[in-house]
Design brief:
The chain is of the alpha+beta class. It contains 4 helices and 11 strands.
Length: 202
């Protein structure tokens, strides 16, 4: 339902393929009173997603993945990014927790034993409606690694188990450049002792 402080004057679909782009003509209330002039905004629609940082409290290590990302093709460095397990919420009756449990098996061949919510955040609200539900998940990372992903989705994912101090060093060195792993690793850094205690490690 549209917020009553926003007037939608027109909405058209500009593109509807793998993603969807919609164009809005709208006005919104101003902080100092009255209404804005008519605005035109394009909105990139790709649905919502969920992501999880798999963490093994016994090994004190995280499971990270590396894969090609078209969005980083022209960026400095290379388009293979270090990330965490994530997936789009494809069905309205599927919960974010169910998504990350499924994706952990598909993308990293590991099973989430327990899960803790971190936050929900908008990816880039100036142009897309996408919201990501972010979690930390307890896993047994012994034996995890190699190349995973679904062939039918053309996934080519390298799975790596990284000691937590090393992951933080990689983060501080600027080698992790995607938002979800940055947020999740910083959260685990802040909550490291509490999460280890929750999962029976002191």
């Amino acid at each position: 339902m549209t917020d009553p402080r926003v007037q939608i004057l027109d909405k058209t679909v500009c593109y509807d393929g793998f993603f969807r782009i919609e164009r809005y003509r709208l006005r919104h209330e101003l902080f100092q009173g009255g209404w804005s002039r008519e605005l035109t905004r394009e909105l990139f629609e790709r649905g919502h997603a969920a992501a999880v940082l798999p963490y093994d409290p016994i090994l004190d290590a995280v499971v990270l993945i590396e894969q090609f990302r078209i969005g980083a093709l022209e960026a400095p460095g290379d388009p293979w990014l270090i990330e965490i397990v994530a997936g789009v919420i494809d069905h309205p009756d599927e919960t974010p927790e169910e998504v990350v449990r499924r994706e952990a098996v598909e993308e990293a061949d590991c099973t989430i034993q327990d899960i803790v919510p971190i936050c929900d955040y908008f990816v880039s609200p100036g142009g897309t409606s996408e919201c990501i539900s972010l979690f930390c998940g307890k896993v047994d990372a012994a034996g995890v690694g190699g190349v995973c992903g679904l062939e039918e989705e053309a996934e080519d994912i390298r799975v790596i188990v990284v000691p937590f101090p090393e992951a933080i060093a990689q983060l501080q060195a600027g080698n992790i450049r995607s938002a979800a792993p940055i947020i999740a690793l910083q959260w685990l850094q802040l909550n490291h002792d509490q999460i280890r205690a929750r999962w029976g490690v002191t």
